[in-house]
Design goal:
One of its GO terms (cellular component) is plasma membrane. The protein is an all-alpha fold and 253 residues long. It is 78% helix and 0% strand.
Length: 253
């Protein structure tokens, strides 16, 4: 398993897109931080900082694309047969890809936190204070952790879909469409939750986790506590990954 994990990391590092992603995120964050520096009224520095200078959506798309390509590439290029001849099971191959994506996504999210802090200190240090208000930066860290959890909820669904296709485009399309549909479905779903309380456990509501960490009053709408959101996300992530694992194992070589 460790050998497979190392092989997947090497494959990831050799891809040009792996290095484009951090570069684009840095450019985007610097651009928004600069705008906040120039026009604080139009681009409020504190709000942009709390959202990691608008890097969140792009980060999700990059991670989804990388994950879908990683799962489908073995079948797309026919290398799955070679991998299986090395005495590895398909289940082990898939788990090694999950671990690689976990490593990659953690690096990107931690790097985003570091970049946000760096831009705050270098460009916006005189605009607002964070360390003088522990509750603010603790909320910022918690919200980013919630973003990471929600990203993996969406990613687990993308990984599930990717196990059924030889090309990554379909899985990425499902993830992107699903990402944008969430905001449209969320409003009627909240109305249904008010009427049927048990619907609060549906997977769509779980995507409100990060938002609730930023705005605590949302708990009156979502009907879930932060801890319930945490465990609910974990359960759905585990469920989608388990289904993907079963499909990948039974898939024809």
């Amino acid at each position: 398993m460790i050998t497979l994990y190392r092989q997947e990391l090497r494959k990831l590092l050799k891809k040009q897109s792996t290095w484009w992603c951090p570069g684009i995120l840095i450019a985007l964050a610097v651009a928004f931080a600069s705008l906040a520096r120039v026009n604080a009224k139009l681009f409020p520095a504190k709000a942009l900082f709390n959202d990691n200078f608008e890097t969140g959506q792009f980060l999700v798309f990059f991670i989804m694309g990388t994950a879908a390509a990683m799962v489908t590439m073995e079948y797309q290029y026919g290398t799955i047969k070679t991998v299986l001849t090395q005495s590895y099971t398909r289940g082990q191959v898939l788990v090694s890809k999950w671990l690689t994506m976990l490593t990659y996504s953690l690096i990107l999210y931690v790097g985003t936190l570091g970049l946000t802090l760096l831009l705050k200190v270098s460009l916006l240090n005189d605009k607002f204070m964070i360390f003088a208000h522990p509750s603010f930066w603790k909320q910022w860290l918690a919200a980013t952790a919630g973003d990471f959890m929600n990203t993996w909820l969406l990613l687990s669904l993308v990984l599930l879909v990717a196990t059924g296709f030889k090309r990554s485009g379909t899985a990425v399309a499902v993830g992107i469409v699903g990402y944008f549909l969430l905001s449209l479905v969320n409003v009627p779903m909240i109305a249904l939750i008010k009427k049927y309380a048990w619907l609060k456990w549906n997977p769509i509501n779980m995507f409100n986790y990060a938002s609730q960490l930023r705005v605590a009053s949302l708990s009156h709408v979502t009907k879930l506590s932060n801890m319930q959101f945490f465990w609910g996300n974990l359960v759905y992530i585990g469920l989608f990954l388990a289904l993907g694992w079963l499909l990948f194992r039974r898939r024809e070589v």
